[in-house]
Write a structure and sequence with these properties.
The protein has about 325 residues and is an alpha/beta fold. It is built from 10 helices and 9 strands. About 40% of the residues lie in helices and about 15% in strands. It starts with a strand and ends in a 5-residue tail after the last strand. The relative contact order is 0.17. It binds the ligand C=CC1=C(C)c2cc3[nH]c(cc4nc(cc5[nH]c(cc1n2)c(C)c5CCC(=O)O)C(CCC(=O)O)=C4C)c(C)c3C=C and fe (ii) ion (FE2) (2 copies). The site of the ligand C=CC1=C(C)c2cc3[nH]c(cc4nc(cc5[nH]c(cc1n2)c(C)c5CCC(=O)O)C(CCC(=O)O)=C4C)c(C)c3C=C has 25 residues, from α1 and α9. Pathway: Porphyrin-containing compound metabolism; protoheme biosynthesis; protoheme from protoporphyrin-IX: step 1/1.
Length: about 325
């Protein structure tokens, strides 16, 4: 019997020319208007993507592979010889292809960890479906949600501390912190089995804020908003970051620190939505905007991932799917 860990991530195109095909995967084949494809190409161009794939992978792919490498190194340092695979739902390396490779490598059992700590049916739920569909005959332990892992919270607090104190010094007063997570369509958080996602996202933020109490941050300095509402129809949950920035300005604040707690590395929602679009809006309304660095290769993040990936941390939803047909 051979065991492994599979890290699951969103996936991102390597070149602008791949955008239409990528969006087709993200939306499950639903047609996307040409102007939306062009707008997304524009945003990805601003964060460094080119027409053709270059030697350097895009940030999401780069950091995801780096996190896997560091996790494997962490295992080795603790006497564990467990291989860490990386798969993406919406782009190469696709989940089905990676699991096929794992099968060829003789893996009979693996633990799947999503690089999205809060459980939502529109990201984690889709990763789960693709994983289980490809893993027939292999025993899978699927970890859906590790939003309240204390070391994850500490990893975020470490990054927040680095920017919040200097921001307060620069502003000459306490600067509010705006925690964010990706928005989801309203329909996913309503009905008989509402997604736990918004509650889990706020739980992560609360744990981070608690760890900042010693630095002088209080609950009254903290806000939460959902960012990057999608282009597909229907309402998405809020409050939006845009409305919250305007409200903070109207309340008399001159600056804000944003920390996205739903993402574990840099990608377009951080490098474009926050660093370009929200910064432009903030400048327009007279608000200074600082952003906490993404976790990327944070050693604390890798410690938290190791805990989840070895099963030492089991507070999230863990589902064991027995090997079919063996
Ligand atoms: C909790 C939910 C979601 C997370 C986390 C998330 C992360 C994430 N998304 C992208 C890139 C894109 N996502 C897009 C659409 C989209 N995303 C979600 C939810 C989460 N995404 C939903 C529900 C949808 C709508 C899907 C549909 O069928 O229409 C798109 C398409 C353009 C758009 O609608 O904005 C892109 C591109 C990344 C890179 C990412 C985190 C790494
Ligand atoms: Fe998305
Ligand atoms: Fe998005």
């Amino acid at each position: 019997m051979s065991e492994a860990v599979l890290l699951l991530a969103h996936g991102t195109p390597n070149a602008l020319g791949e955008m239409a095909e990528y969006l087709d995967k993200v939306t499950g084949g639903r047609a996307i208007p040409r102007e939306v494809v062009e707008e997304l190409q524009h945003r990805y161009r601003l964060i460094g993507l080119r027409e053709e794939a270059g030697a350097t992978p895009p940030p999401l792919t780069h950091w995801t592979l780096e996190q896997a490498r560091l996790l494997e190194r962490n295992f080795l340092a603790n006497g564990l010889k467990t291989k860490v695979y990386v798969a993406m739902r919406n782009w190469h390396p696709y989940i089905a292809d990676v699991i096929a490779q794992m099968r060829r490598d003789g893996v009979t059992q693996f633990r799947a960890v999503c690089l999205a700590p809060q459980n939502s049916r529109t990201s984690v739920g889709l990763y789960r479906k693709a994983t289980l569909a490809a893993a027939e005959g292999i025993e899978v332990e699927f970890i859906a949600g590790w939003a309240e892992h204390p070391v994850l919270a500490e990893a975020f607090a470490e990054k927040l501390r680095k920017v919040w104190r200097p921001a307060c010094d620069e502003a000459g007063r306490k600067v509010p912190v705006l925690f964010t997570a990706h928005s989801v369509p309203c329909r996913t958080v309503m009905g008989d089995s509402p997604d736990p996602y918004p509650v889990e996202a706020k739980a992560t933020a609360r744990l981070v804020a608690e760890r900042m109490a010693g630095d002088g941050l209080t609950g009254l300095d903290c806000y939460f908003a959902f960012q990057s509402q999608g282009v597909s129809g229907g309402p998405w949950i809020g409050p939006t970051v845009e409305d919250t920035l305007k409200a903070l300005r109207e309340e008399g604040h001159a600056g804000v620190v944003i920390q996205p707690v739903g993402f574990l590395c840099d990608h377009v929602e951080i490098l474009y939505d926050i660093d370009i679009a929200f910064k432009e809006l903030a400048a327009k309304i007279g608000l200074e905007l600082w952003r906490a660095e993404s976790l990327n290769d944070s050693p604390l993040l890798i410690d938290a991932l190791a805990d989840v990936a070895t099963g030492r941390y089991r507070a999230g939803v863990v589902e064991t799917v027995a090997a079919a047909g063996v």
